[in-house]
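Why should sequence recovery work at all? Because a backbone constrains its sequence more than one might expect. Tight turns favour small or flexible residues, buried strands favour hydrophobic ones, and helices have their own preferences. The token representation captures these environments compactly. In the example below, the structure is given first.
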């Protein structure tokens, strides 16, 4: 009895899921210091220094987590990327548990978990500190609760769904798409009966109550998120065609995962065992259609896949069991693991940068384009990890070349939040003041007590700077081999004799994008 218990404890489904989740966590922690800080990580840290109920481009949860991480773990790459790695590990565990609740055995649970581990989109997103790692986790929690509601016919669980959705909305508003897809799916399936349940509406009320502070913040500042989304659509985001979007799903979820998530869609929409869970299949379809119509970025659909992978793993397990082809179990998992190893360098910094460039050129694989910027030697996800401290050091040389009386009244204006955030993060050891910028929430934070009498700019072009200052001197040029092209050959100007005060200029420098 004790031996059987020990075997179950060490090799049972739950134990294996925990091992797989731990493996993903350790992989992320091991490679967490590869390359460098990502552009957005500087911004979240800066937002964490200005806690509020909202920001131009995000709700308040992730900046709060950035602050807590900094307070309790520090701000090293390992510390900053610990929570995203944990979120990724929990996503693996939840996907396996979804497979279990759908009726999957130990193999189905492990296959579903492995599929999540090897998917490039999860490997990449769980590597850096952004809203997306936590967003995926909240979607998965919501899907898991929906499975429990449908399986147990327990409408009271809508209260938990509402709480998870509300907290998820305080992290990233994209979970609204999950809610929309769910509402459409409820109308299309017998699960529409839940519209008559008070628990569904109470759950919705809980979600709205948790989300309300952010809504009030947006209202107070005239809905900056809407302006940002519109400007992003017009000037920043690359508009994917339907075929490009679907190709992005194929690549980002991993080509070897395609049969699994397609089998999951079949399970929900067609199969008899999946009939009680039809709701989730139509949820995915509704979200997919919306993203196709919006020409959304390919990775936006990523949080909808764990529920498909869980169901698909069950279908494959049933297929193998009915034919007694047990040899397919290790072969399937082994093939996924091998495929994941091949694509891992495209998702997380496991190779030295020059080795990665050669590897990328050898395989001829390019990351799906998300923005309209031109690439350099590296895809944007990696390029945005390079050049930041070099940029700050260059700005510091210009700043420290000024006479002490000029430094005392000098402002440093950065062209975007990545540059501003890097100056805020690295600048202390170089003796720099905090940066100011017109980009997103930096614009709301304003110019501080700077008058604009002397300004060092990093990023803006000469013709733009001359519109504001009568005396402009090139102090240096930032050169970075691996950064995005628009972050290299970056002019650093010393500007004097302003044509207007910084306070008067400030409304003109606003850039929500």
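From this structural description, the recovered sequence reads:
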């Amino acid at each position: 009895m004790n031996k059987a218990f020990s075997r179950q404890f060490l090799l049972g489904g739950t134990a294996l899921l925990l091992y797989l989740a731990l493996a993903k966590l350790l992989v992320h922690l091991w490679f967490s210091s590869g390359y460098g800080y990502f552009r957005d990580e500087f911004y979240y840290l800066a937002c964490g220094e200005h806690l509020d109920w909202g920001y131009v481009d995000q709700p308040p949860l992730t900046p709060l987590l950035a602050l807590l991480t900094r307070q309790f773990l520090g701000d090293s790459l390992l510390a900053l990327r610990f929570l995203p790695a944990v979120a990724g590990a929990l996503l693996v565990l939840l996907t396996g548990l979804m497979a279990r609740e759908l009726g999957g055995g130990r193999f189905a649970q492990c296959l579903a978990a492995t599929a999540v581990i090897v998917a490039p989109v999860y490997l990449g997103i769980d590597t850096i500190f952004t809203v997306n790692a936590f967003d995926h986790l909240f979607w998965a929690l919501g899907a898991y609760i929906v499975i429990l509601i449908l399986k147990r016919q327990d409408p009271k669980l809508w209260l938990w769904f509402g709480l998870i959705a509300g907290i998820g909305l305080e992290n990233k508003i994209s979970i609204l798409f999950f809610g929309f897809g769910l509402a459409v799916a409820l109308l299309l399936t017998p699960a529409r009966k839940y519209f008559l349940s008070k628990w569904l509406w109470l759950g919705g009320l809980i979600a709205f109550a948790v989300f309300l502070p952010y809504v009030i913040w947006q209202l107070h500042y005239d809905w900056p998120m809407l302006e940002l989304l519109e400007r992003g659509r017009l000037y920043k985001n690359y508009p994917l065609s339907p075929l490009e979007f679907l190709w992005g799903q194929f690549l980002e979820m991993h080509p070897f995962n395609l049969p699994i998530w397609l089998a999951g869609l079949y399970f929900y929409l067609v199969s008899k065992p999946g009939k009680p869970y039809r709701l989730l299949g139509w949820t995915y379809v509704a979200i997919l259609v919306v993203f196709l119509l919006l020409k959304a970025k390919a990775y936006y659909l990523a949080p909808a896949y764990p529920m498909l992978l869980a169901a698909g793993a069950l279908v494959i397990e049933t297929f193998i069991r009915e034919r007694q082809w047990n040899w397919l179990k290790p072969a399937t998992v082994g093939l996924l693991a091998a495929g994941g190893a091949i694509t891992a360098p495209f998702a997380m910094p496991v190779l030295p940068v020059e080795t990665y460039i050669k590897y990328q050129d050898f395989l001829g694989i390019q990351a799906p384009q998300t923005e309209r910027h031109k690439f350099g030697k590296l895809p944007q996800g990696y390029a945005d990890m390079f050049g930041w401290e070099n940029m700050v050091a260059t700005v510091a040389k210009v700043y420290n070349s000024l006479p002490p009386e000029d430094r005392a009244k000098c402002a440093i204006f950065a062209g975007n939040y990545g540059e501003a955030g890097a100056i805020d993060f690295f600048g202390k050891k170089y003796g720099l003041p905090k940066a100011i910028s017109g980009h997103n929430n930096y614009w709301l934070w304003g110019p501080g007590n700077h008058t604009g009498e002397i300004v060092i700019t990093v990023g803006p072009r000469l013709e733009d700077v001359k519109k504001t200052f009568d005396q402009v001197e090139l102090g240096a040029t930032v050169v970075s081999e691996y950064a995005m092209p628009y972050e290299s050959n970056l002019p650093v100007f010393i500007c004097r004799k302003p044509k207007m005060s910084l306070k008067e200029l400030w409304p003109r420098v606003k850039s929500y994008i």
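A few observations help interpret the result. Residues 2-30+81-346 form one domain.
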